[in-house]
Every structure is written in structure tokens, then in C-alpha cells.
Design goal:
CATH class of the largest domain: Alpha Beta
Strand order of the largest sheet: 1-2-4-3-5-16-6-15
Structural class: alpha/beta
Strand content: 15-25%
Distance between the termini: 34 Å
Number of domains: 2
Number of strands: 16
Shape: elongated
CATH architecture of the largest domain: 3-Layer(aba) Sandwich
Number of helices: 9
Low-confidence stretches: none
Mean pLDDT: 97
Bound molecules: ligand L5K734KM
Largest sheet: 8 strands, mixed
Helix content: 25-40%
Length: about 375
């Protein structure tokens, strides 16, 4: 196969869109990615799979005269969302959808890889197809499992996320913090179930949960400097079985976001205090689980990002947009704490938000993304560029 063209890329993206899989279960996606990669020119490629992280793939493109290894990461997992786009190529996996656009991310990575499979780069290029971005911290796992060893270790790392608010194909970026750090929140409230008619003999977990949820809303409004930013979203609650039985247990799941690690720790602490208060005032047990995993704030490296922005800004075919920090999380933040690099947005121009059941990225973004990224990588490896 020669370099993948736009029609082929769109076909690939639609196939990936039809087979979304949750974190660490991306077996069909893995097999399809391997098939597409195996059909590329293998002359410069070395492909690696991992027993310890079976859905991950790394592809090293051997450079002609390498001075460094430049990493490029794409995530490959999907979300537990039931698709409602009505597209002819919508998800064939019930209850699972590429509602965060990782199908676009993978396709762009394949497009860039296919270009360099035909045009040998000067430096080494390392493509990392990473499982488990939405949960389970695949980036951190990969690092801790020692996947980035020897020639598989990038000197610098790049990765993108699609952005429905930007025009299709636009590249968005900023110096400093691009994305928030997050902490996953799990709260179990253990009360005492009973008959609906005799609340005095029970410890109602639903009433305790309702009060907890309301009190949590005061953390951001009353404990955080209004000039700073933080978010707490409690996205899931489960309690009870039937209307006339008082629930003895409630479970709440959510996520905390902050642009700095200090902010996340402050919100973590206040949440623990609210849980302690609910425990005391309702006579229930409240168990709070906080797990940051690898979702550290995404901090762009100053030098590399300055260079990246300069290229995107100065290239007439690229629509560059300087963006604000976003409260989305990304486990690429962990990898950027280990390897210098840059994360950026790729515009996909859609009215639906990320994580919505109707997300329909504009596919024109794919080829424009491939062109912008291959152009940047060529520039980064060129003699013209300041070393
Ligand atoms: C880009 C994006 O949407 N990322 C996810 C990352 C999830 C982090 C973690 N599992 C959490 O829920 O806090 C996001 O929700 O921002």
C-alpha cells in the first residue's frame, strides 16, 4: 500500500467508529490497527506488541540519520455511551461509542504513520497506540510497565485531542497548562435499610446522599478563590430498589478537576471534610475513594511548545487558534511529566460536545490534521530548524 489518501482514511475512521471498546478491552480495535499497519510499507517500520498491555501497539519508524526519537501518541478506547447519531456507520457495540473522538485520533495517527512509512524520516519516530485514556490510566500503566525502554523511549512526545468547538482541521494550542488534572471520586454511603413507614428505625442513605450532593456544590463556590478554577461533577448515583423500602446503601461516582495539583489537593481535602460532616450528622458511614491515577494536569513543555506554535502559526495552510486551558482531563498529562512534549487540539467542528451521544466530528479534519502534523514533524527534523 502507498500512503493512505483521504478516502481511505475516512473508510478507516468509519470502521473504527463501528467497533468502539472500553478501556483495556480494545481487542478488535487492536487487531484492526495491526491489520492497517501491516498493509503499510514495512521497510522502515518495527512494530511491537506487549503481553503486559495486550491492546497497546508501538511502531518505530527508523530514521535515516537519527539525532532523536520523536514520540506521537494516540488513545484508542471508547466510552460507555449509547450512540444516538443515526449515522449509517454508527457503533455496532451496544452501549459503547467513540463519543470522545478517539476514532479520529487513531485515524490521524495512521495517516501520519503511513506518510512516514513511504518517506523515511531523518529522526526516529515512535507511534504509541495507547489503551485506556478514559479510565484506567493507560499512559501511566504503560510507563510503569516499562514500555518506554531503550530505543522505544521518546526524547519528546506529541499528542492531540479533537475539539468540536474549533473549525474542522484547525490546530489549537497554548503555552503552559492545556488540560486540567482530575481525580476520580467514589463515595459509598452505608446506612440502614428499613420500611418506608418507619424512618425512625432506619438510616436513610438516599437522604444522606442528597445532602452530600448539595453540600459538595459549596466547595467550589465557597472554598475556592474565584480567580482560580475547579470543577466537581458527580455524574452517577445509585441507591435503593423500590419506592417503599428505605435504601441502606448509596453510591456516588464523580470527578474533580483543577488546573494545578494544589487545586486538586485542596478540593480533595474539602470533599473529605464534607463526607465526614455527613457521616456525623446522618449517622451513616461514608467511605470516600479518591484516585488520581495518571490524570495529571497536561503541562506543555515551554521550548517544544513555542516551536510547535510557531510552526502552526506561520504555516499558511494551517488554521492555528490559541486556546484557553480546558477542564477536560487526559492521562497524556502523566506522560508529559515524564517526557517533554506538547498536547494540542484538532478542530472537528460539531454542535455536540465531547462525551455526548450525538458527537459527529467533521471528517474533513482528518486529512487537515495529518497534513499539519506531518508538516510539523518534517520541520522539527529539518536542518532549517534551530537545533
Ligand atoms: C478528554 C477527556 O474527555 N478525557 C476524560 C478523562 C477522564 C479522566 C478520569 N477518568 C476522570 O473521570 O476524572 C475526561 O473526562 O476529561
Amino acid at each position: 500500500m502507498t500512503q493512505l489518501n483521504e478516502d481511505q482514511l475516512i473508510k478507516i475512521r468509519r470502521h473504527l467508529h463501528q467497533i468502539p471498546e472500553l478501556a483495556l478491552q480494545e481487542t478488535e480495535t487492536h487487531a484492526y490497527l495491526m491489520q492497517v499497519i501491516s498493509e503499510m510499507n514495512q521497510q522502515y517500520l518495527e512494530v511491537r506488541e506487549f503481553d503486559e498491555l495486550p491492546t497497546a501497539i508501538m511502531v518505530l519508524v527508523h530514521g535515516e540519520n537519527p539525532r532523536r526519537t520523536i514520540g506521537y501518541r494516540t488513545d484508542i478506547d471508547a466510552l460507555p455511551v449509547t450512540e444516538q447519531t443515526g449515522l449509517s456507520y454508527q457503533s455496532t457495540h451496544p452501549g459503547v461509542m467513540h463519543a470522545c473522538g478517539h476514532d479520529i485520533h487513531m485515524t490521524v495517527a495512521l495517516g501520519v504513520l503511513s506518510y512516514f512509512s513511504e518517506h523515511q524520516p531523518t529522526d526516529n519516530l515512535l507511534f504509541f497506540f495507547q489503551p485506556a485514556e478514559e479510565s484506567e490510566a493507560g499512559g501511566k500503566r504503560a510507563y510503569e510497565l516499562g514500555l518506554f525502554k531503550d530505543k522505544w523511549c521518546p526524547d519528546e512526545f506529541y499528542g492531540l485531542h479533537d475539539n468540536p468547538e474549533l473549525p474542522a482541521g484547525a490546530i489549537g494550542c497554548r503555552m503552559g497548562t492545556l488540560f486540567a488534572g482530575t481525580t476520580e471520586v467514589n463515595i459509598d454511603i452505608e446506612g440502614k435499610g428499613g420500611h418506608a413507614a418507619f424512618p425512625q428505625d432506619a438510616k436513610d442513605a438516599v437522604v444522606a446522599a442528597a445532602n452530600l450532593i448539595v453540600q459538595v456544590q459549596t466547595i467550589i463556590s465557597r472554598s475556592i478563590d474565584p480567580i482560580d478554577s475547579g470543577v466537581i461533577t458527580l455524574g452517577k448515583i445509585e441507591a435503593g430498589t423500590i419506592r417503599n423500602v428505605i435504601a441502606g446503601h448509596a453510591r456516588i461516582e464523580g470527578t474533580i478537576r483543577g488546573l494545578t495539583q494544589d487545586m486538586i489537593l485542596l478540593i480533595d481535602r474539602r470533599l473529605q471534610e464534607v463526607c465526614n460532616g455527613i457521616q456525623a450528622s446522618f449517622g451513616v458511614k461514608v467511605k470516600l475513594g479518591l484516585n488520581q491515577g495518571g490524570y495529571w494536569p497536561v503541562e506543555n513543555n515551554p521550548e517544544l511548545t513555542k516551536r510547535f506554535i510557531k510552526y502552526m502559526h506561520d504555516t499558511p495552510t494551517v488554521n492555528f487558534v490559541e486556546t484557553k486551558p480546558a477542564m477536560t482531563g487526559e492521562d497524556f498529562g502523566y506522560l508529559l511529566a515524564k517526557f517533554p512534549g506538547t498536547m494540542f487540539w484538532l478542530g472537528v467542528d460539531d454542535d455536540s460536545q465531547l462525551h455526548s451521544a450525538t458527537l459527529t466530528p467533521n471528517e474533513a479534519a482528518i486529512q487537515r490534521g495529518v497534513d499539519a502534523i506531518t508538516g510539523f514533524l518534517e520541520y522539527r527534523m529539518s536542518a532549517k530548524e534551530e537545533q
